[in-house]
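Predict structure. Chain length: 86.
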Amino acid sequence: MENQEKNKISVEIYGHTYKMVGSESIGHMRLVASIVDDRMREMNLHNPSLDSTKLAVLTAVNTVHDYLLLKERMEQLEEELKKLKG
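Prediction complete.
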Protein backbone atom coordinates (compact mmCIF):
# COMPACT_ATOMS: atom_id res chain seq x y z
CA MET A 1 0.00 0.00 0.00
CA GLU A 2 1.33 3.39 -1.00
CA ASN A 3 2.01 5.94 1.74
CA GLN A 4 0.32 9.21 0.89
CA GLU A 5 1.81 12.39 2.22
CA LYS A 6 -0.38 14.04 4.85
CA ASN A 7 -1.21 17.71 4.67
CA LYS A 8 -1.50 19.61 7.95
CA ILE A 9 -3.28 22.93 8.38
CA SER A 10 -4.89 25.04 11.06
CA VAL A 11 -8.44 26.19 10.39
CA GLU A 12 -10.93 28.29 12.27
CA ILE A 13 -14.45 26.98 12.76
CA TYR A 14 -16.96 29.02 14.73
CA GLY A 15 -14.25 30.97 16.54
CA HIS A 16 -12.12 27.98 17.48
CA THR A 17 -8.86 26.89 15.87
CA TYR A 18 -8.50 23.25 14.85
CA LYS A 19 -5.61 21.35 13.32
CA MET A 20 -6.60 19.24 10.33
CA VAL A 21 -4.51 16.40 8.92
CA GLY A 22 -5.40 14.51 5.78
CA SER A 23 -4.33 13.26 2.40
CA GLU A 24 -6.70 15.66 0.66
CA SER A 25 -5.41 18.95 -0.71
CA ILE A 26 -5.09 21.90 1.61
CA GLY A 27 -7.68 23.70 -0.52
CA HIS A 28 -10.14 20.86 0.00
CA MET A 29 -9.58 20.81 3.75
CA ARG A 30 -10.02 24.61 3.94
CA LEU A 31 -13.25 24.30 1.93
CA VAL A 32 -14.59 21.65 4.32
CA ALA A 33 -13.76 23.82 7.34
CA SER A 34 -15.33 26.85 5.67
CA ILE A 35 -18.55 24.99 4.92
CA VAL A 36 -18.78 23.70 8.50
CA ASP A 37 -18.17 27.22 9.82
CA ASP A 38 -20.82 28.67 7.49
CA ARG A 39 -23.37 26.04 8.48
CA MET A 40 -22.75 26.54 12.20
CA ARG A 41 -23.19 30.29 11.78
CA GLU A 42 -26.39 29.70 9.80
CA MET A 43 -27.71 27.39 12.54
CA ASN A 44 -26.84 30.07 15.10
CA LEU A 45 -29.01 32.59 13.25
CA HIS A 46 -32.02 30.30 13.67
CA ASN A 47 -31.08 29.06 17.16
CA PRO A 48 -29.20 31.89 18.92
CA SER A 49 -29.65 30.39 22.40
CA LEU A 50 -27.69 27.20 21.63
CA ASP A 51 -24.10 26.86 22.81
CA SER A 52 -21.35 25.86 20.37
CA THR A 53 -21.51 22.16 21.29
CA LYS A 54 -25.22 21.96 20.57
CA LEU A 55 -24.76 23.97 17.38
CA ALA A 56 -22.05 21.53 16.30
CA VAL A 57 -24.34 18.54 16.89
CA LEU A 58 -27.23 20.24 15.07
CA THR A 59 -24.89 21.05 12.19
CA ALA A 60 -23.70 17.43 12.07
CA VAL A 61 -27.29 16.12 12.10
CA ASN A 62 -28.28 18.44 9.26
CA THR A 63 -25.15 17.57 7.29
CA VAL A 64 -25.76 13.82 7.59
CA HIS A 65 -29.39 14.38 6.60
CA ASP A 66 -28.25 16.22 3.45
CA TYR A 67 -25.71 13.47 2.73
CA LEU A 68 -28.34 10.74 2.98
CA LEU A 69 -30.69 12.64 0.65
CA LEU A 70 -27.89 13.04 -1.90
CA LYS A 71 -26.89 9.38 -1.57
CA GLU A 72 -30.50 8.30 -2.13
CA ARG A 73 -30.78 10.58 -5.17
CA MET A 74 -27.52 9.20 -6.58
CA GLU A 75 -28.79 5.64 -6.18
CA GLN A 76 -32.02 6.59 -7.99
CA LEU A 77 -30.04 8.13 -10.84
CA GLU A 78 -27.80 5.05 -11.05
CA GLU A 79 -30.90 2.84 -11.35
CA GLU A 80 -32.32 5.08 -14.08
CA LEU A 81 -29.01 4.90 -15.92
CA LYS A 82 -28.98 1.09 -15.71
CA LYS A 83 -32.51 0.99 -17.18
CA LEU A 84 -31.49 3.29 -20.03
CA LYS A 85 -28.42 1.13 -20.81
CA GLY A 86 -30.42 -2.10 -20.43
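Summary: Helices lie at 26-46, 52-85.
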